[in-house]
Amino acid sequence: MPRRITFSLWTLAFTLVLMTLLATGFGALRLPVNLLWNGTDDALRQIWFTIRLPRVLLALVIGGSLALAGCVMQGLFRNPLADPGLLGISSGAACAVALWVVLPITLPALLMLYAPMLAAFIGALAATLVIFLLSQQRDSSLSRLLLVGIAINALCGAAVGVLSWVSNDAQLRQLSLWGMGSLGAAQWSTLLAATSLMIPTVLIIWRLASALNLLQLGDEEAHYLGVDVRIVQRILLLCSALLVASAVAVSGVIGFIGLVVPHLMRMWLGSDHRAVIPGSVLSGAFLLLIADTIARTVVSPAEMPVGLLTSLLGAPWFLWLIFRRGGQNG
């Protein structure tokens, strides 16, 4: 990669580390890092280690996962408007998790930790397959894909509404807060579960970055250049569905990160996925970390769902993209 891109990625990584250290000190209770290490208050250290640090690290994992999923979807569909939320993939995962919440099944402790992610993966994969099969048709278009995404979102939203109607008070509150997206339930166990799925998935996608570059030329051209198109497409679809599933199962529905971040990275770093993939992971983690820090502090001591903040950022960006593409096509 060119030196400029390498320098940009290292700068982004350094900024992310610095922001991570600063973010652990912000919240309803200020916890400056120097006070923690120089002071003698064990209670503050316990709050920092068991509550604040897992939440900050989970924001990094979830933000990076959502941004990378969006990056893969945009690369596969060769369209900058492809996004797990807009195409209904997040809604499919959300519907499956809602079903798990309302109809719980008793499982061993380790399986219980991963059960919501498995449910979300099944829902996300089902929606992903529908979208992908549609995109392979000759008469497919962006407008048709978005319409199908709207239909899937509406159908899954109705299903979640029915499940909310039949749920008890505790389940209803859980579904309501979870539907708006929040990292308030962050624990070391959920962080471990999400990270154990994200890291190998990121490595798999990174290894397929060159193949994803060739897919931008078209399926036939990529085949002649030595890419097993169907296998690569299936692996990338499974990986993106797994990333969305792990994020939705842990934090609920957090929209537009998968749309905004990869598009910005392509504008900044170019179209080479060997640069766009790490850039999307780092920038997605940075964006969600900033949004969650604001959500924890802007209405302190209360807390705003972080999904609301990302939607406030992403919806205007989406409208700008639509009008920009419309102007170019006109």
Automatic annotation (TrEMBL):
Keywords: Cell membrane, Membrane, Transmembrane, Transmembrane helix, Transport. The keyword Transmembrane helix applies. It is a multi-pass membrane protein. It comes from the Bacteria. It is found in: Cell membrane. InterPro entries: ABC_BtuC-like, ABC_transptr_permease_BtuC. Pfam families: FecCD. The chain crosses the membrane at residues 47-73, 85-107, 113-134, 146-166, 186-206, 235-261, 281-299, 306-323. Belongs to the binding-protein-dependent transport system permease family. FecCD subfamily. This is Iron ABC transporter.
